[in-house]
Amino acid sequence: MSIHDKIHDVAVIGAGAAGLAASIFAAEVVAKADRQHRIVILDSAKKIGAKILISGGGRCNVMHEVVASTDYCGNRRIIKNVLAAFSVDQTVKWFASLGVELKCENTGKLFPVTDEARTVLQALVERCHELGVEIQSNHRVDDIEHAKDHGHGFVIHHSQGILHTRKVILATGGRSIPKSGSDGFGYSLARRLGHHVTTTVPALVPLVLEDTMFHKTLSGLSHDVKLTTMVKGRHVDSRTGSLLWTHFGISGPVVMDASRFWCLAQEQDETVAVYGNFLPDQTSEQAQQWFMDQAAGTPRRSLARTLGQLVPERFAEALCLHIACDPQTAIAQLPRKDRDRLIEALTAFRFPVERHRGWNYAEVTAGGVPLEEINYRTMESKLVPGLYLVGEILDCDGRIGGFNFQWAWATGWIAGRASAMQSTMA
Ligand code: FDA
Questions:
Q1: CATH number of the domain to which 145 belongs
Q2: Ligand 1: does its nearest atom lie under 6 Å from the Cβ of 42?
Q3: Residue 318 confidence (pLDDT) above 50
Q4: Cβ-count burial of 355 within 10 angstroms (0-12 exposed, 13-18 middle, 19+ buried)?
Q5: Statement to judge: residues 214 and 295 lie in one domain
Q6: Based on the domain organization, do 157 and 233 belong to the same domain?
Q7: Cα 94 to the chain's mean position, in Å?
Q8: Phi then psi for 45, rounded to 5 degrees?
Q9: Is the pTM of this model over 0.90?
């Protein structure tokens, strides 16, 4: 038997969303051409698919009904091209072809009709089996080197031995939930092959507030807030959405989406501040006017009840106490200086953020292998021919709503097909 008989055509490192998608698309190209192939997925985890199973609260928010590059951070020109290659319609049809029917909720998020993430994982794994893709769990990849003896390809060193392959698809994910298998080692593999890796920080992560705050008393309450992040005094992000008060601080979609900016600035030792406008539709001037109208119209109404028309009353009480105003004061009796302080607290509240909640609570990683080092038409490395990168290992992170999985499917589609077409097997 010659060495060529033992060479795999494509080895995919990582059996997460991106790796499974890439293997399926690679195997489909070969199956269509009626050729034999050896496509293998190696994953360090004993059981694959942990992130798919825990995603979307166990329901897996597979994608979003409308996807644009502005839903992501990273090089938006490249992101736009990648997303255009595998549209929302194509993705829905692909899932239907796998037997996964999706439903769109009024938030625009798509979930399997079964409301079970397991449906998605099972369908992907079954399709791999149908196509003859080998899935090797408990195979941690420690190193990837260029093959020396037979001219081209790679030698993969893993926990069970070595493997020769013509193409490698690196789909090792980021650093969030390290116990799932995505512990950031993929970045070291990429670096050893010559790639850069930008600063990686948690994204879509809750924020922990200082103990002096009132968050504990409001635990479980959520309401709309406009969050603004300022770095070194400069505005970097504003967004409006639901904020959830918790026993440790703040969470909810708007906080999760904004967290990457706080984490990045903090990692880079830059001064960063997060402000909340609890009256997202109003400026402080409009709030002042509203307050004075209320004081004229219903002068004896308490502060808490008055504010309760705009924000949850429990929150209004906590905020008043926080700035040392009695929430039961009749609004007309409120001294002007207290009214000004209250308006400021309502419209430009500086959250005393102590830290982010850590990698065990982050849904994704911001930062990674720069998209400029990849040919977006194929997802092949511009530095290492035969190496492809997909999914979260790349420097691209989406907001909450199915955008990160869409990135995994789209990059998997491009790399899977390109690696199979360019491989000697095609
Ligand atoms: P992923 O991390 O999924 O997979 C990487 C794989 O590589 C892992 O299986 C790991 O074991 C393996 N691996 C790593 N290093 C290795 C090595 N050295 N050798 C071998 N194998 C190795 N997104 C979304 O769009 N909708 C949602 O509902 C959610 N919900 C959600 C909830 C929670 C709690 C989290 C943590 C995340 C989400 N996400 C999400 C984000 C989404 O799960 C994430 O972006 C994708 O799973 C990333 O897919 P990848 O395949 O790139 O990496």
A1: 3.50.50.60
A2: yes
A3: yes
A4: middle
A5: yes
A6: no
A7: 22
A8: -70, 150
A9: yes
Query: Separation of 179 CA from ligand 1 center, angstroms?
Result: 11
Grade residue 151 by pLDDT with cuts at 50, 70 and 90: low
209 C-beta neighbours (distance < 10 Å), count? 21
Mutation to probe ligand 1, out of 65, 111, 172, 394 (largest number of atoms < 8 A from CB):
172
One domain, residues 39 and 136:
yes
Query: How sure is the predictor about 149, in pLDDT bands with cuts at 50, 70 and 90?
Result: low
What pLDDT score does 152 carry?
72
192 with 252, same domain: the answer is no
Query: 416: Cβ below 6 Å to ligand 1?
Result: no
- pLDDT-derived band at 4 (thresholds 50, 70, 90) equals low
CA distance 260 to 398: 10
Q: Are residues 323 and 373 in the same domain?
A: no
Of the residues 334, 357, 380, the one at which a domain ends:
357
Q: Which domain holds residue 372?
A: 3-201+366-425
Question: Using 50, 70 and 90 to split pLDDT, how confident is the model at 417?
Answer: very high
* Residue located nearest, by CA, to atom 15 of ligand 1: 172
* Residue 187 and residue 269 in one domain: no
- What pLDDT score does 96 carry? 98
120 lines ligand 1 (CB under 6 A): no
193 and 45 within one domain: yes
> Do 393 and 311 belong together in one domain?
no
pLDDT of residue 1: 45
Distance from the alpha carbon of residue 172 to the mean position of ligand 1, in angstroms: 8
Could you tell me what percent of the chain has a pLDDT over 70?
Answer: 97
Number of structural domains the chain divides into: 2
Residue that is last in its domain, among 339, 357, 375: 357
